[in-house]
Design goal:
MetI-like fold, 13 helices, single chain, mainly alpha
């Protein structure tokens, strides 16, 4: 057992060194860690009264100042506090929806690639159905039919954005199962469960991990879009909701740029950070991309 863990630690160290060689990936990882720390520590200095529309500490649409670094919103709340606190909802929804999407896609892709035949035909036709219909339109439809809340947004995004992962994992599964050691495992009595869990899943996990980091960025954009369209949770502060309120209250036409830019820049920064990490992980897990670097 100690030898196994030693090999795993050595493999993890090798992967980290390869990831650290990508400066863009390190920049993305550093940005993500900073944003996550700010989001987790936000309740320590941002109270419920600071976010309340009744007991807002500032005036209406005050420009940036020494007291309010990013100005105030249409009811007098600090835009900086709203932007930091909004990261909590956006990150939770983005990560949870991406995990749900990648989980569904991984299961469908592995089953389709492993069993083939009518199982693959049925699963791929279902996948094609979801690919043909726009994911955002399906997410909007689900959000309008289900009760409004964060769980609804997570489900709406997760169950409509898995097809691309399913096709990717299916192709990887077919490649893995064509290797000789899979045939040997089956010849020695390994059943479907053994082959899938002991051989296929560990082999596709690095690719799934890289795809997950990219899926989080897409999920955050989808959450912001749904919130901007008024389908988010009105009781939670999120970046999409901030953009919607800036538009609905006339803050944009009033020239209050400090209310519009921070959430927009935050969305771009987080999505870019996840994309940089995802691309770096792709290079680590894909030998062909490593050779071209």
């Amino acid at each position: 057992m100690s030898i196994v863990w030693a090999r795993r630690r050595a493999a993890a160290g090798r992967l980290w060194r390869e990831f650290a060689a990508d400066r863009a990936g390190l920049v993305g990882l550093g940005a993500l860690l900073g944003i996550v720390v700010l989001a987790l520590l936000a309740p320590l200095w941002i109270s419920a009264d600071d976010l309340s529309v009744i007991s807002a500490p500032g005036g209406i649409l005050e420009p940036p100042s020494a007291e309010f670094w990013l100005g105030t919103d249409h009811v007098g709340r600090s835009v900086l506090d709203l932007t930091i606190y909004g990261a909590r909802v956006s990150l939770v929804v983005g990560i949870a929806a991406a995990l749900l999407s990648v989980g569904i896609g991984t299961v469908v892709g592995m089953l389709s690639g492993h069993f083939g035949g009518w199982v693959s035909a049925v699963l791929m036709r279902v996948t094609d159905f979801f690919l043909v219909l726009p994911a955002l339109v399906l997410a909007i439809a689900l959000s309008t039919m289900l009760a409004r809340g964060l769980s609804t947004i997570i489900v709406a995004i997760g169950v409509t954005s898995w097809p691309s992962t399913a096709r990717l994992v299916r192709a990887q599964t077919l490649t893995i199962e064509a290797r000789p050691y899979i045939e040997r495992a089956q010849a020695l009595g390994g059943g479907h469960r053994h082959v899938l869990l002991k051989h296929v899943l560990p082999a596709v996990l690095p690719l799934v991990l890289a795809n997950t980091t990219l899926a989080v960025g897409s999920a955050i954009i989808a959450e912001s879009t749904l919130a901007f369209l008024g389908l988010g949770d009105p009781s939670k502060v999120s970046w999409g909701q901030m953009l919607k309120q800036a538009l609905d209250t006339g803050s944009v036409t009033a020239g209050a740029w400090w209310y519009l830019l921070p959430p927009g820049i935050a969305i771009v920064a987080v999505v870019l950070a996840f994309t940089l990490c995802g691309r770096a992980l792709e290079i680590v897990v894909n030998p062909n991309l490593r050779a071209r670097r």
